[in-house]
Amino acid sequence: MTPIAPVTLAGRLVTLEPLEKSHHDELVAAVRDGEVWKLWFTAVPSPQEMGAEIERRLELQEAGSMLPFVTRRNADSVVLGMTTFMDIDAGLPRVEIGSTWNRASVRGTGTNVDAKLLLLTHAFEVLGCPAVEFRTHWMNMASRAAIERLGAKLDGVLRAHRRMADGSLRDTCVYSIIASEWPQVRSGLEFRLAGHLDSAR
Questions:
Q1: pTM of the entire structure?
Q2: 22-31, 32-41, 66-75, 153-162: which has the minimum mean pLDDT?
Q3: Domain assignment present for 2
Q4: pLDDT by residue (tens digit) across 108-167?
Q5: Is residue 195, in this structure, part of any structural domain at all?
Q6: How far is CA 85 from CA 47, 100, 196, in A?
Q7: What distance separates the 2 farthest-apart alpha carbons in the chain?
Q8: Domain total of the chain
Q9: Is residue 3 part of a domain?
Q10: CA 110, 144, 41: angle at the middle one, nearest 5?
Q11: Which domain holds residue 137?
Q12: Using CB atoms within 10 A of its CB, is residue 7 exposed (0-12), middle (13-18) or buried (19+)?
């Protein structure tokens, strides 16, 4: 079994780098693009909270429950945001892909498609996961649509599952992709990525 350990994943549009404290200023610049922390149904760190969020993710990495990455665009080396393998069950192994956010200006450019292709390829083909999970707020329609476009299936909804920063209770949609579905999901992601690459030429 391949250990679930920090690794750099290089794709066509982006590279996923292991999160480090030195990424702080680049991540602050990224989160200010679109002020995505102001969306009430997300848990994106504000510029003032970025240092604490980096510390939190690195502490979870040390505990073995998270593998955090920074997403960097290959074309100009600009940091776009963060993503993770989280809620890691190393014994199965099983991971959730989550705690993801990106600059608002890169939506629809294919960078997130490339990042998901990198993460899922590593999870299924290197780590040997039988399933990969995704979770999001019931009200986060954009996130739900993006997860469903991957080919993930809705396993269920956890009602009143988490308390948000504003005190409201979150209903959590739980999705997954299982290993037998991965070849079809991979083909779909590669097709979508090729479209973005063609349009960029």
A1: 0.94
A2: 32-41
A3: no
A4: 999 999 999 999 999 999 999 999 999 999 999 988 999 999 999 999 999 999 888 788
A5: yes
A6: 23, 10, 25
A7: 47
A8: 1
A9: no
A10: 105
A11: 9-200
A12: middle
Cβ neighbors of 124 (< 8 A, separation 6 or more) are 132, 179, 182
Residue 97 located in a structural domain: yes
Distances from the Cα of 77 to the Cαs of 15, 17, 73, 124, 136, in angstroms? 9, 11, 5, 27, 28
Is the Cα torsion angle 8, 137, 171, 173 positive or negative in sign? Answer: negative
Cβ-count burial 58-67 (b if 16+ within 10 Å, e if not)? bebbeeebbb
**Residue 87: which region, alpha, beta or left (left: phi > 0; alpha: psi -120 to 50)?**
left
- CATH number of the domain that residue 128 is part of: 3.40.630.30
